[in-house]
Design goal:
alpha/beta; Quinone Oxidoreductase, Chain A, domain 1; Rossmann fold; 2 domains; six-stranded parallel sheet; 10 helices; GroES-like_sf
Length: about 325
């Protein structure tokens, strides 16, 4: 089969590789659509030791099983028996694996092998391009669920999302779907803001335009020093900061303000299997909108897609590759 292989820093090769061999309880999924994630970009830039070259990246996939079912893929493989799994927090499984990290190759390929329990069937009215968004949306759905559990009902009046990439857009949509009516999303890129200036139910703004405003829930979907500082300043006393982004750095949080104002900070990672299923249900019944904030390219054009993302030339929050 053909795959897009990460072979070294800023190097991707579209080349022939051996077909995956499903293990016990696994099925072969022929990939129709696979999204480029920020973590793929980190690996591409040589910033992720967990993803050493050579490796097939990509974990946001949807396709067709060997027995003909249209499915979207939960790429997080867990043991089901450890303390975290038994508690329903399987995203914290002590032996968790995710495709696109050794020992599991990713979905930037014509096929991938997955445990059958990690597959969710896709109804006919949902395209596989839309279905491939389940993974990034589930990340944000999980974060929003944790945030809403951390604040009382009367402190869920408004929310700020910092970052207009796929995770940020998904967070804004998840906030709306889970009952927060006033949601603002900020992004410094005017191309991105123009693209997102659609009737999605949330407000799109330049970061400078919300300076001085305060929000009950703040989502940092970027995770740099500057965005952590912005989140610290923007969160209302007694509110919650949801830190999803893994941009880098270790500074930014205003610990004095967080302490004096009893602001809760929650680091969130991926999603539970139930969160993934709940996300799919919300996507399939239309609660997360038309899911039309993507651009599609062929897998063979993957290297140029990465270059365009890095240079800020793409307006869409998500590029989906088609093998």
């Amino acid at each position: 089969m053909k795959a897009l292989v990460y072979t070294g820093v800023e190097t991707l090769e579209h080349r022939a590789v051996p077909d995956p061999e499903p293990g016990e309880g696994e099925l072969l999924v022929r990939i129709d659509s696979v999204g480029i994630c920020g973590s793929d970009m980190h690996a591409f830039l040589g910033h992720d030791d967990r993803r050493p070259a050579p490796l097939i990246l990509g974990h946001e996939g949807a396709g067709v099983t060997q027995d003909g079912r249209r499915v979207t893929i939960n790429p997080l493989v867990t043991c089901g028996t450890c303390r975290s799994c038994r508690a329903g927090r399987d995203n914290l499984c002590s032996t968790r694996q995710i495709i696109s990290m050794p020992p599991r190759e990713g979905a930037f390929a014509e096929a991938v092998a997955m445990p059958e329990r990690n597959l969710v069937e896709v109804p006919d009215h949902v395209t596989l391009e839309q279905a491939s968004l389940a993974e990034p949306i589930a990340v944000s759905w999980h974060a929003v669920r944790l945030g809403l559990e951390a604040v009382p009902d009367d402190m869920r009046q408004n929310a700020l999302v910092i970052g207009g990439g796929a995770i940020g857009v998904a967070a804004a949509l998840s906030l709306l779907a889970q009952g927060v009516k006033d949601v603002t999303l900020t992004d410094p890129n005017p191309l991105r803001r123009a693209f997102l200036g659609l009737e999605a139910g949330y407000r799109v703004a330049d970061p400078d335009s919300v300076l001085g405003a305060q929000f009950d829930i703040t989502v940092d979907a970027v995770g740099f020093d500057a965005t952590r500082a912005a989140a610290s300043a923007a969160t209302h006393p007694g509110g919650v900061i949801l830190h999803i982004g893994l941009g880098g750095g270790a500074a930014g949080f205003d610990i004095r303000r967080i302490t004096l104002q009893e602001i809760t900070v929650i680091g969130t990672y991926t999603y539970t299997a139930q969160d993934f299923r709940d996300t799919c249900a919300a996507m399939f019944d239309g609660r997360l909108g038309p899911l039309d904030w993507v651009e599609t390219r062929s897998l063979a054009e993957g290297a140029s897609a990465f270059a365009d993302i890095r240079s800020g030339k793409t307006s869409a929050p998500k590029i989906i590759l088609k093998p």
